[in-house]
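ingest -> validate -> predict -> emit
validate: passed (alphabet ok, no gaps, 172 aa)
predict: started
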Amino acid sequence: MALSDASMTKRVGLYPGTFDPITRGHLDIITRSFRVVDRLIIAVARNDRKGPLFSTDERVELVEQDVQHLRDQGHDVEVCAFDNLLVHFARQKGASVIIRGLRAVSDFEFEFQMTGMNTRLDQDIETLFLMASDKHQFISSRFVKEVAALGGDVSEFVTPETLKRLKAASGS
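emit:
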């Protein structure tokens, strides 16, 4: 029996973010994304306007290290940097789904507006919101950086390699 074209088509998802740094909350969304996509592209935004702690190359490297276990488990995951319009990048990469994580109502407001704009720019790309799991709802890269810079323990929010880099960057 021949497989239909639809069953052979991989659903490609794109999970964009600054990932400065990548947190366990991000990793939760990444892992759960594989319930709805076959291939996931993690798109690290260059976005120097945000004044990132880590360079784009460092952020890509940290994400690469933190998702290696997913590759080892057979998941199809790519990590790359981008600096163009998200829907253009998604189209360029063949993604039909943009994955976005939501922690709180305040996230939804911004994401709702961005999704509306993206839909106007490309109606063929769908946005899928994944709610942060309860143990990750309060984690944000911004809070992790602030707590780490003030000498607080962020080890439960990031992986050991990211923790090491945070400590080096903040001089603690």
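The helical segments are 5-8, 24-33, 56-72, 86-93, 105-121, 141-149, 160-170.
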